[in-house]
Design goal:
The structure is a homodimer of 340-residue chains.
Chain A lengths: L16 H15 L2 H4 L5 E17 L5 E2 L2 E2 H14 L4 E12 L4 H18 L2 E10 L7 E11 L17 E4 L5 H10 L16 H10 L3 E6 L4 H10 L5 E5 L7 H10 L12 E5 L4 H9 L8 E7 L6 E4 L5 E4 L12
Parallel strand pairs in A: 4-5, 9-12
Antiparallel strand pairs in A: 1-6, 2-3, 4-6, 7-10, 7-11, 8-10, 9-11, 12-13
Helix pairs in contact in A: 1-4, 3-4, 6-9
Chain lengths: 340, 340
């Protein structure tokens, strides 16, 4: 009947025959696992956990494909990282698709394959999902919402709230900043760059595991996504009895990221990352954690970027390369829409 | 700075100051609970469960507000019902919003209030969430994705797969069919009806609890949403060593639902419900379950609508009021887009 077998039709979201074939031919094919394959409305999961971490994110990135990743990989990494930084082991993800009528089936398959590959790397399962199709023009190509569950040890440490942070603690990050945001911006604007910028989009759960294994003095972790490292630092100091001091010279900003930031007028400190975690570590363990991170492929360029100080209460400051000092505030408006 | 404090701006999705004020002034205000109020990227939850049910759904209903509900209520009920029909107790929900720039803040607040009220009724907590804002014209007003976690007893029965169904079992439903789909259609088309049609949109977890308490012979449950009761019946029989026989005269279809179905050319059997659960119950317990359902506000009009038969293997049949018989097949295409 339909000549457009290569396009998403409204019927793919109807709950009828086309929905079923989409589930079997695409989602079950690539995400295959016991829970998903049951094809019941709820996945039934073996968990045996006293405490869990639970997180959700919607992804609306534009363009869908960019150097270093795509919306599918991003949707997996983003949710995994939110769980991992809480100290939990990510186990199960759900994935819900809102798709514009007419979206090429080939692109959907590419996205789903990419999700599947990233799920394998991170060792998590995509166990349940949903698909809605809206009329042409009612959404922009495809949006994906992933929700994740991670398992926490019964006696887990609080590394999310920041309440455990002490004066003298060191701040570490696992590499360069601003890569993801500028990769998306350069792809969106089809900028002609000498060297293309790759997004740092990555699942960090294995890297984070290593850090938690070598030290029991990890006091805080957060992945620096929307709003960049600057926003995380501003939030982290807010209302606290400590200040944060960052050395600009210790931050790694790739040359091409720096150029495009200058060109477009962005401060790399506020540009989104998708594979960077900020860790606050007791000073006695900082070098040990740094060395462990450096041995992992996702942490090769890790560095200590600053420390928790007994002054500037409630504020984050950065010492600039020319010797000055400026405050790191939160972003007031939208810097870059649809970066994730 | 902004004159448009009453509208959603791109900055509300930036992860910066505006995002934070949206979270505090709206989400934390209405959804308030210990886990959410921490405002960490992952909610940390006390669960103590061996097994859980995990489900997700995106809601793109158009219009957002309709008699008997709105997109917010629907997003809570839909996810709760998917968990409840698996036999689990729904506990925690996440909620992710994709919002079009310029969306009225007043409408968002109305939706969030409605979610909060339904969450209270169902006794679940909304513990984590996300907000993305896309440029005007890049999505249609607002989409909501809810994901839920329910707790299952260690030795829970399988009531999702249909594998426990036996010949002779009775089929029950907790009231009239087609209400939700036709409520949305009449609201969308601004039809001038004598009596308005209310959506049946409801959280069924308390009702389902009652059924599971009075009988250990509940063999299967599913909420009949997209694709309607017809799709559930067609799926339930598919590839099985039994058939299903439904009596058309036992189905309740409200007069105004019937009229609008005739007017628009829909078969009520395939029209979406959002507060209806199909149960398959051992025949010896069917009356007991029926009576228990009838005592609950969401089950007053429950009835036995058919049985599992030792013929028509793999097929569902319906005997029509004029004595004929027709097969119930799955929907081939999209009947009603954006009904949920």
């Amino acid at each position: 009947m339909h000549k457009q077998k290569d396009r998403i039709l409204l019927g793919h979201g109807s709950g009828g025959k086309l929905t079923h074939s989409l589930i079997s031919d695409l989602f079950v094919k690539y995400f295959s696992n016991t829970a998903l394959n049951q094809q019941t409305d709820s996945a039934i999961l073996d968990l045996e956990a006293d405490n869990i971490a639970f997180t959700t994110d919607s992804f609306v990135v534009d363009p869908l494909f960019f150097p270093g990743g795509d919306i599918g990989k991003l949707a997996i990494c983003g949710t995994i990282n939110d769980i991992a930084v809480s100290g939990a082991t990510p186990l199960f993800l759900s994935s819900s698709f809102i798709i514009e009528e007419g979206f090429p089936m080939e692109h959907l398959e590419k996205i789903v394959k990419s999700m599947s590959a990233e799920a394998k790397y991170a060792r998590i399962q995509i166990v349940t999902g949903d698909t809605k199709v809206v009329n042409k023009g009612k959404c922009d190509k495809i949006f994906i919402t992933t929700t994740g569950i991670g398992k926490l040890a019964k006696k887990h440490k609080d590394i999310s709230s920041g309440l455990k942070i002490k004066i003298g603690d060191k701040l570490l990050i696992n590499g360069s900043i601003g890569d993801h945001g500028m990769a998306v911006m350069s792809a969106r604007n089809e900028l002609n760059l000498k060297a293309s910028i790759d997004s740092d989009c990555a699942s960090l759960n294995h890297l984070i595991d290593i850090a938690l294994q070598v030290s029991d003095k990890i006091r805080f972790m957060r992945d620096a996504t929307r709003g960049g490292l600057g926003t995380v630092l501003a939030e982290l100091a807010k209302n606290r009895n400590y200040g944060i001091m960052i050395e600009e010279t210790s931050l790694i900003i790739k040359e091409n990221v720096k150029s495009i930031c200058e060109l477009l007028g962005f401060d790399p400190l506020y540009v989104a990352n998708e594979g960077k975690v900020l860790m606050v570590v007791g000073k006695e363990d900082a070098d040990k954690v740094l060395n462990a991170l450096k041995k992992h492929e996702k942490g090769k360029n890790s560095s200590i970027i600053g420390e928790i100080v007994d002054q500037y209460y409630g504020k984050s400051w950065i010492t600039t390369s020319i010797g000055g000092k400026r405050i790191i505030d939160m972003l007031a408006g939208e810097q870059l829409p649809r970066i994730c």
